[in-house]
Amino acid sequence: MMIEIERLWQALNDVPDPELPVVSLVELGIVRDVQVTAGKIVVTITPTFSGCPAHYAMQDAICDRLRQVTDAAIEIMTTYSPPWSSDWITDTAREKLRAFGIAPAPRHGGNVMLLEAVTCPNCGSANTVLRNPFGPTPCRMIYTCNDCRQPFEAFKPL
Predict the structure, then answer these.
(1) pLDDT digits (tens, 9 = 90+) for 67-80
(2) Domains of the chain by range and CATH?
(3) Max intra-chain CA distance, the chain
């Protein structure tokens, strides 16, 4: 049985994030690797946080999607080394998040600056203020735009 890695990546790119269905787990950088060993598919993931509440939902969604394209055995490996980074979010996903009303974290290359200005995804203004560093998930925080007066979520630069 020949399993094409590219076909698996294409299928995985269809798996939406359970909390942000406008982006896929591949686009968020959560799916780190796909290997085929002795006819078994091994998918390596790195959740955004070690206690990510969507961890098992992501695993189930990955398996469900891969079962649509292959009958091979599937194993999901979770790794936290290196830890997930908001730098892994693709440019395409950043635009999708912005259009959805969530400010993507700036690319930081490991030099994380938590107090940098965050651009409002609604009007594009940098005249924003952090309202709560704890958003609906551990990887997001709540801001308000002083220009358009809209509250919005922003990905933490991790």
Answers:
(1) 999 999 999 999 99
(2) 5-78 (3.30.300.130), 89-155 (no CATH)
(3) 58
